[in-house]
Amino acid sequence: MGWKCFSVDGAMRIIFLGTPGYSVTVLSSLFEAGHELLAVVTRADKPAGRGRSVESPPTAVWAREHGVPVLQPTSLRPPEVAAEFAALKPDVMVVASYGRILPPDILAVPVKGCLNVHPSLLPKYRGSSPVAEALLQGDTVTGVTIMLLDEGMDTGPIVAQAEYPVLDDDTSESLMVRMFERGAELLARTLPAWDSGELTGKPQDDSLATHSRRLEKSDGELDFTRPGKQLSDQVRALHPWPGAFTRWNGKTLKVLKAVPMSLNTADHENAEDVSAGTVVALNSGEAASLGVATSNGILGIVEVQLEGRKASDGNAFLRGHADFLGARLPS
């Protein structure tokens, strides 16, 4: 038996696949719209936090609180998994950051296909890190795509799409949350027309495709021979993980928040002659109190965290580490 919060005409029988907290926005919107949730499929419970206690994914927690069955297969490839899904007789499967590619026998289960909420304007930024890639590229506009899954990586037909602005202070975290909120709204508007057959998918133009890759810890290291604007975008894109960092006196120095600034903000007579990577004081009243010279402009440091210490703003950090001014990073 599936679960829904009230009965509505046009309600669909849905298996939902998703794992992280921002996927819950999509899941709860389906529930609130009166669709019949047959099951929530998510990743396995795993240790988390300092105590390493085993925790369930946020989607599993939500599902149990709302009486929706939870399935946590270690793999989708065994035939019995597809058989279990098929026994539920879904009209459609909705995927929102599940974390695995669906094999052909799973894709074939629902009568009306598998719809995926993807946080980019496909075919731009296919792959696992589209939100971070948009920020890394300095995009001012991004969006959400509802697509029909096929066997490729984000290559299926586009069912619906909407553009949204990237805010100046967006990080991957804030932008991801907002894109899945918008994605939930777009999906809600899309499902009735998809169910009735009024809406069909449009093939992607593969010649326009770009890709995003899975991020690694090393992607966070700041190279001050690059322009300040690119480094600021890197800080935003890699928050909260893997995080932007450099090294000072052999310790990791995380850069939690930064802004691009011009050379004339430096409290230095010959700022244009300062070598890339040099820490400089900035003029009073600027958005940051200290910065690092780059190949083009200054990376204003708003918030940092030295290895083994708490996070602090630039002023507080300088009060405890006066010798930071004039340092050459990384060191």
- Could you tell me the number of beta strands? 17
Known CATH architecture of the largest domain: 3-Layer(aba) Sandwich
Per DSSP, what share of the residues sits in E-state strands of 2 or more residues?
25-35%
Instruction: Summarize model confidence as the mean pLDDT.
Output: 94
Q: State the major sheet.
A: 7 strands, mixed
CATH superfamily of the largest domain: Formyl transferase, N-terminal domain
Task: Explain briefly what this protein structure is.
The protein has 8 helices and 17 strands.
Task: Tell me about this structure.
This protein has helices at 23-32, 58-65, 79-87, 104-107, 130-136, 172-196, 228-237, 314-320; strands at residues 13-18, 36-41, 46-48, 53-55, 70-71, 92-96, 114-118, 126-127, 141-148, 158-165, 211-212, 244-248, 251-261, 279-281, 290-293, 298-306, 312-313. The chain has 331 residues and is of the alpha/beta class. It has two domains: 13-212, Formyl transferase, N-terminal domain (Rossmann fold, 3-Layer(aba) Sandwich), CATH 3.40.50; 217-324, Formyl transferase, C-terminal domain (Methionyl-tRNA Fmet Formyltransferase, Chain A, domain 2), CATH 3.10.25.10. A seven-stranded mixed beta sheet has the order 5-2-1-6-7-9-10. Strands 12, 13, 14, 15, 16 and 17 form a six-stranded antiparallel beta sheet that branches. Helix 1 (23-32) packs parallel to helix 6. The chain is elongated, with a radius of gyration of 23 Å.
